[in-house]
Amino acid sequence: MVVREDSRPSLDRSDTLARTFTLRASRTLVLGAVAMAAVAWMVTLPGVLAALACGSPLALAMRRFARLRAPAVATAAAAAAGALAGSLGLGHGVVATRLLAACIATLAVAPWLLVLGFVRWARRGAGMS
Fold it and tell me: Which of 67, 85, 77, 88 has its CA nearest to residue 113?
């Protein structure tokens, strides 16, 4: 926020963009959490929880990297491996059903983790906290 000489606050363009980015990112993360909860409720709770447990550390560490390609691929792969392990190890039903549940859990969790990592990475680059 920039203060003019007549002491009326005006929004700088970078402040407006930062607020828009924060609003859109927050909305995306909330909708992703709702989608993950729906998949956990209807398809496979162990797959979603294991995917979150495996992919979250990498998504949170994405902020430390200069480029996003390698950590993004690693985060998606870890989420897929976690969903597969959780669904196969703790799921119930036929193996083909558990494999399909792992794919659905991966499609619900991996994009959310990538958005989380990208938001943290972009905030680091923009100097936001």
Answer: 77
3-class secondary structure, 48 = helix
**pLDDT one digit per residue (tens) for the chain, 129 residues:** 555 555 555 556 667 777 788 888 889 999 999 999 999 999 999 999 999 999 999 999 999 998 989 999 999 999 999 999 999 999 888 999 999 999 999 999 999 999 999 998 888 766 555
Q: Report the C-alpha gap between 11 and 66 in whole angstroms.
A: 30
Sequence ranges of the domains in the chain: 11-126
Q: Provide the total of helices (H) and of strands (E) in the chain, helices listed first.
A: 4, 2
Residues in CB range of 72: below 8 A, 6 or more apart: 62, 114, 117, 118
How far is 129 from 127, CA to CA, in rounded Å? 7
